[in-house]
Amino acid sequence: MERIFGRPIVTQEEMRARIKELGKQITADYAGKDFVLVGVLKGAYAFYADLARAIRIPMRVDFLVVTSYGSRAKTSGKVKIVTELTEDIKGKEVLLVEDIVDSGLTAQYLIKTLAKKKPQSIKVCTLLSKPERRTVDVALEYVGFKIPNRYVVGYGLDYQQKYRNLPYLAVLDMEGEQE
Ligand code: PRP
Ligand code: MN
Ligand code: MG
């Protein structure tokens, strides 16, 4: 595979192995439950597709389109649901799928907002977590990898809406760039 740029922070091999583990765990935890896997787009699309196929129980799929960063590298602090869920989650076991939890604002906002729809439970599975950047406390049930405070792109994650299609996670060299 030709490198578009950057060095992988997590290799495709490590990623595959970790997603398989997460899938097994989620399969065990949600077996027999009325389970909905909710992808938080756009960032989660690649992880979601792989994770969903590693889960071996009947489940529903649904999605939210949410934005807080827009084209910027820093959070605006305001989370906006651009596109709502398509189905009622009342009484269901909801697992939100995120590509990354950074400040924690998006996950916190979604948990709070979706709780109003009265699901049976609502938890978070994130591929990546940057604990150093957390400004709000949010419980993360499943975390793929904890990563240092570097700007990463690829595998769904963007910089100014680009690089989401890189097949691996790369550290973006921000030298000379305005954050
Ligand atoms: C990014 C990322 C998470 C969120 C994490 O989404 O995909 O959803 O920010 O940051 P936080 O913990 O500081 O809230 P973004 O708003 O960039 O939208 P995108 O998924 O379309 O890239
Ligand atoms: Mn996102
Ligand atoms: Mg983004």
Automatic annotation (TrEMBL):
| Coiled-coil annotated spans | none
Location in the cell reads:
Cytoplasm
List the GO molecular function terms. guanine phosphoribosyltransferase activity; hypoxanthine phosphoribosyltransferase activity; magnesium ion binding; nucleotide binding
**In which pathway is this protein known to take part?**
Purine metabolism; IMP biosynthesis via salvage pathway; IMP from hypoxanthine: step 1/1
Which prosthetic group or cofactor does it need?
A: Mg(2+)
Q: Which domain of life is it from?
A: Bacteria
Enumerate the spans annotated as Phosphoribosyltransferase domain. 12-160
Sorted alphabetically, the Gene Ontology cellular component annotations on this record are: cytosol
The cross-references to Pfam families, in alphabetical order and at most eight, read: Pribosyltran
Q: Which SUPFAM superfamilies match?
A: PRTase-like (SSF53271)
Catalysed reaction, written as an equation: GMP + diphosphate = guanine + 5-phospho-alpha-D-ribose 1-diphosphate; IMP + diphosphate = hypoxanthine + 5-phospho-alpha-D-ribose 1-diphosphate
A Gene Ontology biological process term: IMP salvage
Q: So what EC number does this one have? A: 2.4.2.8
Sorted alphabetically, which keywords does the UniProt record give? Cytoplasm, Glycosyltransferase, Magnesium, Metal-binding, Nucleotide-binding, Purine salvage, Transferase
InterPro entries in the record, alphabetically? HGPRT, Hxn_phspho_trans, PRTase-like, PRTase_dom
Write down the NCBIfam families for this protein, in alphabetical order. HGPRTase (TIGR01203)
Q: Which family does it belong to?
A: Belongs to the purine/pyrimidine phosphoribosyltransferase family.
UniProt name for this protein: Hypoxanthine phosphoribosyltransferase
